[in-house]
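Appendix B. Worked example

We walk through a single record from start to finish. Start with the input: the chain for Drug/metabolite transporter (DMT)-like permease, Rossellomorea pakistanensis, length 310.
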Amino acid sequence: MQKTRRIGLLMIISGATLWGISGPMIQWLFQKTELTSSDYLIFRLLLAGLFILVFLLFKGDNIFAIWKHPSHRIHLVIFAVLGMLGAQYAFVETVRISNAVTATLFQFLGPVLIPIYIAIKDKKLPTPMKVLAVITAFIGTFFLITNGSVENLVLSDNAVVWGILTALGFTFYTLQPVNLIKKWGTMVVVGWGLLIGGIVLLLINPINDYQKLTESITFSTMTMFLLIILSGTFSFLLYIGSLKYLSATETGILSSIEPLVAGILTVTWLNESFGGYQLIGGGFIILAVILLTVPEKEIEKGVVASERVS
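Next comes the structure step. The output line below is what the pipeline stores for this chain.
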């Protein structure tokens, strides 16, 4: 038991660290190339989706069975477009406009919004601990955006809008595919979600400036791009795997190292600076997520698992 627990701890810490690293790497890619968020995501979603689905095929899983059910097909497409593509695009655009730490912290607001949605849906007040978590998160968001001064906002209007959309997107794709995940498994749903999201984005906003794209491709940028895809994908697989050995509460707490890793890299590697109140705000948001793991009943594993995607 102790050995399997150590394996679980190693998996979740590694997975959270890899996800925390991926944000600064995306920011570096935007700084060194002329890629747009759409250009980047088309390749990332398509390649990550294919990676997961091919992996499942080699395992012998029937990845096409989900398409035989009309209602499941509809829900899968909705998840792919509004959840997977929507959340990923908002996250990457927040990185591009502001920085990796800000995007990661806004992403962390997703789990905090879930109790609000459930309270409205069930017409029932959340537990005191969840109320405290929500209040803590909003205090943290206020400091993150304003750095303690409402007269001089630290983040631009666009960064705030895309950051809020990031939180809403991650909330949506955490809640919406729960039934699909119970029936078909997380990896099948997420794999198809990534692939469909990439195809839809390619159709809506195709890559037109191939010259600019080829000029951006160097050995260093291509290497970074591949590392981003691998880190995000393996982060997801490690997170899912850790749920076999640890409780959802433990994984929720340990995943809080994501913004810490992103923050350290962004400051030391990318030379970003943050105000004192912004750092306090980040701490409040992380604390809010930790408080959400305290309630009497753990979040169902299938729901929690969908909160980490490549």
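Two observations about the output. Confidence is low (pLDDT under 50) at residues 298-310. The chain has one domain: 2-305.
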